[in-house]
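Troubleshooting entry. The earlier prediction with pyridoxal-5'-phosphate gave an output that would not parse, so I re-checked the input for stray whitespace and re-submitted. Clean input:
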Amino acid sequence: MATLTDPQQALAQADPAVASLIAQEADRQENTLEMIASENHTSSAVMAAVGSCLTNKYCEGYPGKRYYSGCDYYDEIETLAIERAKELYGCEFANVQPHSGANANLAAFFALLEPGDTYLSVVLSDGGHLSHGLPVNVSGKWFNAVHYPLIYDEASPEYGHIDFDAVARLAAEHKPKMILCGYSAYPRTIDFDRFRKIADDCGALLMCDMAHIAGLIAGGAHRSPFPQCDIVTTTTHKTLRGPRGGLILTNDPDIAVKIDRAIFPGTQGGPLMHVIAGKAVCFGEALDPSFKTYAHQVVANAKALGEHLKQAGYGLASNGTDNHLLLIDLRTIDPELTGKSGALWLEQAGIITNKNTVANDPRSPFVTSGIRIGTPALTTRGFAEPQMKTVADLMDRTLRSNGDAQVIEQVRSEVVELCKQFPMPH
Ligand SMILES: *Cc1c(COP(=O)(O)O)cnc(C)c1O
């Protein structure tokens, strides 16, 4: 057997400049609260696979049908990843080759739509993703995206939820070829039954992009998009806690053939086999019973954090959460406070978030009136409900500080102390 070198050691010797930057980044991750809803801390096992010799090889094609020699072990690795993905999500077909979530969506569109075809989705500013029809993205430029709204009436008990009456109306009016559900900033459970009914009524395919909630679904903390959805795309690096990458699933054998062709040779060349090995490891971890506990704790933490923030006077999109994320409307504590300033102060205090538009936001995407936060990464570090009160308090003091350096400095030191109590898992 070949000896395995310590990759970090090798890097430090070969390229101290890059090694030092990586070490500084590891330090940043260790000493800040990672609250970006789409991020997580993956395991050393996943990172070992991604940092392995598997990066060396071309494997264009699929297991048993490659265009290059020497792919035996790669065939086994990819097959393992496929089998585990199918088991994890209880479906018949999986393509583990998409380089990212956006690539998975591009391949899904390429497989199932013709240029100019109409589909329904949520606009970016209401919590959709740029690959769901932004005019500057291929999904908006080459296809006709019609956007369905949320319920914007703050007096409604359904405020911030999907407006299913509008979805049905738009479906009847536009006869879309596909309806897309699954979002980047939507704090509520997705009702796949209602989408299926509307899709059936207008003869559309139903696609779910579960990028944000893939880990919750894997752990049983959000209902599965199967059997209602015809095709499911996702990233593997958000709540699912794997390497950066994409994945496409279906139960339909015809769609499966189209998807495989749309990935290779349709939109990609050689697969990233080191990342596919990382996906196999990640799926293995997510199949372990402990992942169920993790997924449920992510949701419990988000709910607890939401309650504490509400008690501190913050308004939340849809008034709360069913999943891993919260969208804070900063106008509820200060009409002048923007997402841009809030996220900057929080970053200075060591709390990493992102500015985000809220429903019907009058401010631009560069300024925004909201902040999106999530609990996947904190939960990986072992944070539970008691820490959510502390985190809410740290956030509240920072957001009400008006940027005061002394307040932010004090919060920063408390953040470092908290991080020390919850070291990064390895
Ligand atoms: C994050 C995300 C993606 C894109 O993932 P990338 O890996 O960044 O390309 C796609 N769809 C949704 C809903 C997402 O939240």
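This one parsed fine. The chain is about 45% helix and 10% strand.
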